[in-house]
Specification:
single chain; alpha+beta; five-stranded antiparallel sheet; 2 helices; elongated; disordered N terminus
């Protein structure tokens, strides 16, 4: 038991996803501690391609919640709170 505690203390406990990307109507994270990749893909609800956009959350290949956005994704970090709220996730990104 003492050895296990020492190993955890030395290596730390990192609960952040290591890789993220966002551009336009696509957002994704991977290399997460739970080994589950997540992505959000959005499409325009109108024929002219303008907002609002309907976004679909996918977690580990399973389609989940949907939410609306009025703009695309500028970066994964800057839109993390909106994605977590819309998808019902608690993703954390590495600084």
């Amino acid at each position: 038991m003492t050895i296990l505690i020492a190993i955890v203390a030395v290596t730390g406990c990192d609960d952040t996803c290591k890789d993220s990307s966002a551009a336009g109507l696509y957002w994704s994270v991977s290399q997460c501690p739970d080994k589950v990749d997540r992505k959000v893909e959005c499409v325009s609800k109108s024929a002219d391609g303008k907002p609002p956009f309907e976004c679909t959350c996918t977690e580990g290949g399973n389609v989940g919640k949907k939410f609306e956005r009025t703009e695309g994704f500028m970066s994964a970090k800057s839109t993390l709170d909106a994605v977590n709220r819309g998808c019902g996730w608690s993703v954390k990104l590495k600084d």
